[in-house]
Design brief:
Helices cover about 45% and strands about 20% of the residues. By secondary structure, it is an alpha/beta fold. It folds into three domains: about 5-90, no CATH class; about 95-185, Ribonuclease H-like superfamily/Ribonuclease H (Nucleotidyltransferase, domain 5, 2-Layer Sandwich); about 190-229, no CATH class. The strands form two sheets. A five-stranded mixed sheet has the order 3-2-1-4-5. A two-stranded antiparallel sheet has the order 6-7. A hairpin with a 2-residue loop joins strand 6 (about 225) and strand 7 (about 225-229). It starts with a helix and ends with a strand. About 10% of the residues are buried.
Length: about 230
C-alpha cells in the first residue's frame, strides 16, 4: 500500500509513472534521516523507509543512481512536484518568502544556485531555484528573471520577501513593488547615502552615530527615484 503522502500525487502517475514519483518521495524521506545529499550514505536508510530491510544496501544505492541517471534533466517532474507540494503546504499557512544563494567551483565549473523558499513555521522549503553558473552576487536582472519564472508557476502575490543585503537595487525593488511582493531586505553601511541625506530629517552620519554610540533605533523614510519606501 502506498503511504498517504504519496497517494496525494496520484494525478502525476500517468505522466511520469509511479516509480519516478515514488523515488522523489523516497529522497525527501532520506534527506532528514541521513542528513546529507550523498547517495552512498543515504543508501543505508532506504530499507527502513521502504520496509525492505532484507534488501542489500548496495541494491538501494543502484536504485538511487538509476533515478538520477534517468530523471535529473527532467525539469517538468520536479516542477510539478514542487507545485503540488506548495498547494499542500498552503494548508499550513505561510506568507513569507526567503531568498538566498550559494556559489562554489567544481574543478573549472562555476556553480551558483539562487534559491527561493517559502517559510513554513521555522522551516524554509525551496520552491524554485536557478543555476547562474558564476561566482559572486546575482544581478538585478537575474533576480527579476527568476521571479518572473516563479510567478508563472505559483501565486506569490501579497507575500513578504526576506533577503540579505546583497539582494538590493532600485530596479529590483521597483519590480517587487510592481508585482505586489512586500520585502524586508538588509542594507549595507553606505547604501543609498545620497538619497538618505536628500530626504528631510537627520543626515546619514548623525543617524549612524546615534545607532553606534547610544544603541538607539533610528528610521527615516526616503525616496528611491519613482519608488517610495
Amino acid at each position: 500500500m502506498l503511504p498517504p503522502h504519496l497517494r496525494k500525487f496520484s494525478e502525476l502517475y500517468e505522466t511520469y509513472g509511479l516509480g519516478a514519483v515514488k523515488n522523489v518521495w523516497l529522497l525527501a524521506c532520506l534527506l532528514p534521516l541521513a542528513r546529507t545529499v550523498n547517495l552512498y550514505k543515504m543508501k543505508d536508510f532506504v530499507g527502513g523507509v521502504l520496509e525492505k530491510e532484507t534488501t542489500k544496501a548496495d541494491s538501494h544505492y543502484k536504485r538511487l543512481i538509476r533515478f538520477f541517471q534517468d530523471w535529473s534533466d527532467n525539469e517538468a517532474l520536479f516542477r510539478d512536484l514542487v507545485r503540488h507540494n506548495l498547494r499542500f503546504l498552503r494548508g499550513l499557512g505561510f506568507k513569507t518568502l526567503v531568498m538566498d544563494g550559494t556559489s562554489w567551483t567544481i574543478g573549472e565549473a562555476k556553480v551558483h544556485y539562487l534559491v527561493l523558499s517559502v517559510l513554513v513555521g521555522s522551516v524554509a522549503v525551496p520552491i524554485y531555484w536557478v543555476q547562474l553558473a558564476k561566482i559572486g552576487a546575482s544581478s538585478q536582472s537575474e533576480r527579476k528573471a527568476m521571479f518572473t519564472s516563479a510567478f508563472a508557476l505559483f501565486n506569490l502575490e501579497g507575500m513578504t520577501l526576506l533577503a540579505d543585503r546583497e539582494y538590493i537595487g532600485k530596479e529590483w525593488f521597483k519590480f517587487l513593488k510592481e508585482n505586489n511582493i512586500h520585502f524586508v531586505i538588509r542594507l549595507r553601511i553606505g547604501d543609498y547615502f545620497d538619497e538618505t541625506n536628500a530626504a528631510p530629517g537627520k543626515d546619514y552620519e548623525r543617524m549612524l552615530l546615534k545607532c553606534g554610540t547610544k544603541n538607539k533605533l533610528v528610521k527615516k523614510r526616503i525616496g528611491l527615484d519613482v519608488l517610495f519606501c
